[in-house]
Structures are given as C-alpha cells and as structure tokens.
C-alpha cells in the first residue's frame, strides 16, 4: 500500500510539475516528523515513568534519576557519553511508576547510523511487565561500521503498550526521553562527498561507472523516503538525446530519482525492468541543464550499490544534415545557414579566416569577394563548435 501511495504521488508530480514544490514540501513535513520526532510521549504526568537510566561509556557516563514528570518528550540531550564503534556496553534502566502500578512495556534505541530515525534494528533492549520490577539490563554492541559523530539514545516506557514500541508514538501515561551519544573510533566521514546538492559526486564524462554504499556517512536529504541518499551531478551535452541510469546488481531495494537544479522532478523508478528490486530509468535531456541523479533505498533500505550512467547521442547525420544546412551549396554569389544564430566564420584551405559575421541572424551572406574553391564555414551552437564545407563556383 505504501508503494502505491508513493507511485501515485510521483505520477502526480510528473503530470503537474507546477505543483511539484507544494508536493515536495508536503513530503518534507512528513520526513521531518520522522527525523528525531519530537511530538511524542505522554499527555499525562501520572503513573508509569522511567525512574533511572545509567550508561557508562568509553568516555563519560549517563546517570539519570527520576525527576519531575514531563509531558511529551523529555529532552535530556545535555546528558551524554561516548561509545566506541565495535565496543560492548551495558545500559541499566529502571522502568517504574510515580503513581499507580499498571502493566506496560519499555524499549531503548540508539541511532547508530545517524539518519535521524530510531530503526527497529537499532533497538538495544526491551522490557514488559507491571512495576515494581527488577532493573532492566540491556547488553549491546555498537556496530563496527558506525560513523563518528553525535547521535541520540531514546528510552520509552508506555503504559498499556505492547512490544515492539513505536519510538514516535504518543500516548497517555509513560515516558519518552532522549540522551546524547557520541560515536568514536568509527568511520571518519569527512572525505565522503555526495550527501547533498552542495557537495555532489561530479559525473564529468559518460559512460560512467561507480560503486557506493549509503549505509554510512550519508544522511537523508531527498525526502521521499527515510533512506540515506547520494547525489550525482550531470550537465547534459546539447548533443545528447537521453541518459540512462542503472542500479542493477545492487545489494538492497533501491529507489532512483532525477531532479533539475530547481528541484523539479525529471524521472523516478523503484524496480527497473529486469533488475529485480534494483532501479533503472531513462530520461530525455532536451532543455535540461545541471541535473542531479539521486540514489537511495526504498523505505529505510541501505547498502552497497553499483551505478552506471550512459547517454544516447544525436546521430551525425542529424547534426550535419537536418539541424544545420548551408544553401545553396555549391554557390556563386551568396548562401544562408539553416538553424544558426550568432557568429559565423568562413575559412580557406590554408586555415585563414577570410570572412566573419559577428551576429548572423538568418540573412543571406554575400561571398562575391571570395575566389572560387572549397571553404569551411564555422559556427557555434549551444557553446559547441560546428563546421560545414562550402563550395564556391
């Protein structure tokens, strides 16, 4: 059902490009709510409540004891500790009450991949029961591939809740609290590029082949899905008819999209033909300037991918015979050029410019001052240099 929703949304986006900024802003609101959701937690200060949280890290520790009841999210990010990638740690959490004793559930997460969401795989422990109960001891290991940097731990207790809990849920009684976690001894992401349009991976020539992995060092900038995404920048040549992008052979369920420099969607694909859950697409380049190809996963998916980008160019006869024509050719007194506006130069067999028109606009060019023979007519179109042979009889 979710895939159908996004498919319909994408089709509407392409059909009504003028409405795209509005649709994209709607997606932005959706995704921001999913990134460290803060409109969460209890609406009452009574009863079920997390009484204490202790976590001794590689450097520093979190030591929290029950304080005043808080409605909504209890922001305790002023309290934090450092955990090293690959290291094993213990979080001691007391799920309890400040009033009556009622059954419920508790859970804790650490956003190891720093994508702004608490994914199910990032849960470090669960609890269920009726207070008073014994201290919950959560043993966990930080992924060896975790990236260095600041992230969060979320602890939730929900009265009448059932496991697994939703870290973004709202309810009546319980607690939701966030602490700061700094990951050390992990991957240094300072050398990685492609996280957004301000620092994309530049595709300077085609065909282009590359491999990548969005499971670390990348954040969620393209707000269709919560998956981290990687941006590739292409500036199509006027000689191109279309560009084909393929993620076939990637290790995860990919989603591929193309936008122009203004954020307008050009093309998108979920599952490419013959690619399984990998994506592939072809888009026309006529009228396109700077363009971004965005690689991400469907939903929260991430992993290693293979990308290939190639172009279909205008045929030589299309360039020489259809788009640009000299007529009449051969000629005796004058000629004109079809499809050209701008500077035109006539060059003799010795390579010397014998006649120049700074601003040609379709008028007839007189060649009465030139001798009979073979010449080259040279002109510029879309910043590219073209030439045609001209015979004067």
Explain what this protein looks like in three dimensions.
The protein is mainly beta and 393 residues long. It folds into 3 domains: 35-184, Immunoglobulins (Immunoglobulin-like), CATH 2.60.40.10; 190-313, Jelly Rolls (Sandwich); 317-392, Immunoglobulins (Immunoglobulin-like, Sandwich). It has 3 helices and 27 strands. The protein has helices spanning 2-15, 20-34, 316-323; strands at residues 41-42, 48-56, 61-65, 73-84, 88-97, 104-110, 123-129, 136-141, 149-159, 170-171, 174-184, 201-202, 208-213, 230-234, 240-246, 254-260, 265-269, 280-284, 291-297, 304-313, 325-327, 334-338, 342-347, 353-360, 365-366, 373-381, 384-392. It has a 5-stranded mixed beta sheet, with no helix packed on it. A 5-stranded mixed beta sheet has the order 12-14-19-16-17. The protein has a 4-stranded antiparallel beta sheet with strand order 3-2-5-8, with no helix packed on it. Strand 23 and strand 24 (353-360) form a beta hairpin.
Keywords:
393 residues; mainly beta; Immunoglobulin-like; Jelly Rolls; 5-stranded mixed β-sheet; 3 helices; disordered N terminus
